[in-house]
Amino acid sequence: MYSPHHSRTGAGAYARVGVETRAMSASPLQLIHMLFDGARTAIGAARLHLAAGDIAAKGLAISKAINIVDNGLKASLDAEAAGEAGTELIGNLSSLYDYVVQRLLLANLRNDAQALDEADRLLDHLASAWREIDARPSNG
User: Fold this and answer.
1) Is the distance from CB of 35 to CB of 73 less than 8 angstroms?
2) Superfamily of chain region 27-135
3) Which biological process, per GO, is one annotated for this protein (predicted)?
4) Which of 126, 136, 128, 132 is nearest to 93 (CA)?
Protein backbone atom coordinates (compact mmCIF):
# COMPACT_ATOMS: atom_id res chain seq x y z
CA MET A 1 0.00 0.00 0.00
CA TYR A 2 1.45 3.38 -1.02
CA SER A 3 1.45 6.25 1.41
CA PRO A 4 2.97 9.66 0.65
CA HIS A 5 3.80 9.97 4.37
CA HIS A 6 5.99 6.86 4.27
CA SER A 7 7.66 8.15 1.13
CA ARG A 8 8.59 11.43 2.80
CA THR A 9 9.75 9.63 5.91
CA GLY A 10 11.87 7.23 3.84
CA ALA A 11 13.43 10.07 1.89
CA GLY A 12 14.09 11.96 5.12
CA ALA A 13 15.74 8.90 6.66
CA TYR A 14 17.86 8.44 3.55
CA ALA A 15 18.96 12.09 3.71
CA ARG A 16 19.79 11.79 7.43
CA VAL A 17 21.96 8.74 6.75
CA GLY A 18 23.82 10.74 4.10
CA VAL A 19 24.42 13.61 6.51
CA GLU A 20 25.47 11.25 9.31
CA THR A 21 27.88 9.47 6.97
CA ARG A 22 29.45 12.78 5.88
CA ALA A 23 29.68 13.92 9.51
CA MET A 24 31.42 10.72 10.63
CA SER A 25 34.16 11.11 8.02
CA ALA A 26 34.46 14.91 8.22
CA SER A 27 37.31 16.92 9.67
CA PRO A 28 36.50 19.34 12.49
CA LEU A 29 36.50 22.23 9.99
CA GLN A 30 34.17 20.33 7.66
CA LEU A 31 31.81 19.75 10.60
CA ILE A 32 31.76 23.50 11.27
CA HIS A 33 30.89 24.07 7.59
CA MET A 34 28.07 21.52 7.87
CA LEU A 35 26.70 23.30 10.96
CA PHE A 36 26.70 26.67 9.18
CA ASP A 37 25.04 25.12 6.12
CA GLY A 38 22.39 23.47 8.30
CA ALA A 39 21.61 26.66 10.22
CA ARG A 40 21.38 28.72 7.05
CA THR A 41 19.19 26.09 5.37
CA ALA A 42 16.85 26.14 8.38
CA ILE A 43 16.69 29.95 8.24
CA GLY A 44 15.87 29.77 4.52
CA ALA A 45 13.09 27.28 5.25
CA ALA A 46 11.78 29.55 8.02
CA ARG A 47 11.72 32.47 5.56
CA LEU A 48 9.70 30.41 3.06
CA HIS A 49 7.27 29.19 5.75
CA LEU A 50 6.82 32.76 7.03
CA ALA A 51 6.05 34.01 3.52
CA ALA A 52 3.56 31.16 3.04
CA GLY A 53 1.90 31.94 6.38
CA ASP A 54 2.78 28.54 7.86
CA ILE A 55 3.64 29.82 11.33
CA ALA A 56 4.03 26.38 12.93
CA ALA A 57 6.54 25.23 10.29
CA LYS A 58 8.33 28.59 10.56
CA GLY A 59 8.67 28.07 14.31
CA LEU A 60 10.07 24.57 13.85
CA ALA A 61 12.62 25.77 11.28
CA ILE A 62 13.75 28.63 13.52
CA SER A 63 14.01 26.25 16.47
CA LYS A 64 16.24 24.01 14.36
CA ALA A 65 18.47 26.97 13.42
CA ILE A 66 18.70 28.06 17.08
CA ASN A 67 19.61 24.53 18.13
CA ILE A 68 22.38 24.34 15.53
CA VAL A 69 23.82 27.73 16.51
CA ASP A 70 23.56 27.18 20.26
CA ASN A 71 24.26 23.46 20.62
CA GLY A 72 26.48 23.07 17.58
CA LEU A 73 28.46 26.17 16.68
CA LYS A 74 28.62 27.80 20.11
CA ALA A 75 29.13 24.50 21.92
CA SER A 76 32.08 23.72 19.64
CA LEU A 77 34.03 26.74 20.88
CA ASP A 78 36.99 25.50 22.90
CA ALA A 79 38.62 28.14 25.09
CA GLU A 80 41.30 25.69 26.27
CA ALA A 81 42.35 24.82 22.73
CA ALA A 82 42.36 28.51 21.77
CA GLY A 83 44.88 29.30 24.48
CA GLU A 84 45.49 32.70 25.96
CA ALA A 85 45.78 34.37 22.56
CA GLY A 86 42.40 33.01 21.43
CA THR A 87 40.43 33.80 24.59
CA GLU A 88 39.16 37.13 23.27
CA LEU A 89 38.21 35.60 19.92
CA ILE A 90 36.29 32.78 21.63
CA GLY A 91 34.46 35.34 23.80
CA ASN A 92 33.58 37.43 20.74
CA LEU A 93 32.35 34.43 18.78
CA SER A 94 30.27 33.25 21.73
CA SER A 95 28.67 36.69 22.03
CA LEU A 96 28.00 36.80 18.30
CA TYR A 97 26.34 33.38 18.39
CA ASP A 98 24.22 34.60 21.34
CA TYR A 99 23.21 37.64 19.28
CA VAL A 100 22.24 35.45 16.30
CA VAL A 101 20.08 33.32 18.63
CA GLN A 102 18.43 36.49 19.98
CA ARG A 103 17.66 37.68 16.45
CA LEU A 104 16.19 34.27 15.60
CA LEU A 105 14.04 34.31 18.74
CA LEU A 106 12.81 37.80 17.83
CA ALA A 107 12.11 36.69 14.26
CA ASN A 108 10.03 33.83 15.60
CA LEU A 109 8.17 35.94 18.16
CA ARG A 110 7.37 38.81 15.79
CA ASN A 111 7.33 37.01 12.44
CA ASP A 112 10.15 39.36 11.48
CA ALA A 113 11.73 38.52 8.12
CA GLN A 114 14.37 41.25 8.60
CA ALA A 115 15.61 39.58 11.79
CA LEU A 116 15.85 36.29 9.87
CA ASP A 117 17.81 38.06 7.13
CA GLU A 118 20.20 39.61 9.67
CA ALA A 119 20.86 36.26 11.36
CA ASP A 120 21.45 34.67 7.95
CA ARG A 121 23.87 37.44 6.90
CA LEU A 122 25.85 37.11 10.13
CA LEU A 123 26.10 33.35 9.74
CA ASP A 124 27.13 33.78 6.10
CA HIS A 125 29.96 36.15 7.10
CA LEU A 126 31.16 33.76 9.80
CA ALA A 127 30.95 30.78 7.44
CA SER A 128 33.02 32.71 4.87
CA ALA A 129 35.70 33.34 7.49
CA TRP A 130 35.78 29.62 8.35
CA ARG A 131 36.04 28.76 4.63
CA GLU A 132 39.05 31.08 4.33
CA ILE A 133 40.72 29.30 7.25
CA ASP A 134 40.03 25.97 5.57
CA ALA A 135 41.43 27.20 2.24
CA ARG A 136 44.77 28.33 3.71
CA PRO A 137 47.70 26.05 2.96
CA SER A 138 48.73 24.04 5.99
CA ASN A 139 52.12 24.58 7.57
CA GLY A 140 52.72 20.85 7.90
Assistant:
1) yes
2) Flagellar protein FliS (1.20.120.340)
3) bacterial-type flagellum assembly
4) 126
